[in-house]
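Bench notes, afternoon.
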Amino acid sequence: MKRIFLIICILFLTSVVSYSYAQTGGMMGGQKSEMGKSQMMDQSKTMESMMDMTKQMSEMMGKMSGMMRDASTEQMKKMSEIMKDMSKQMEEMSKTVEKGWTSEHKMKTMHNQMLKMQKEMSKMETKK
């Protein structure tokens, strides 16, 4: 049951990454040459940051799969909370990719949320 859940989570993350990548490619291909380079740099940095966060989430899911084998009920609840946070984060990332840009404040907020999830995972790993 845990493996099925993990497989579903990984497939979901993969599909979101694929969709995000496809949307990014389409938007960048349609850019006009008159557009300022600074705006494209912002867009490129935004998408690079999104891909980085997605990779981090994928790594966290892999760690969770290993921890699920001997996880207590309390740890399973904590993993569930982290997965909910990851889902919210993916939704925010998807909205950002759809727009093609975001404010620096919003990006910092998403990075801080990611750091918070990683710290929670680290705490769980050390309690093992």
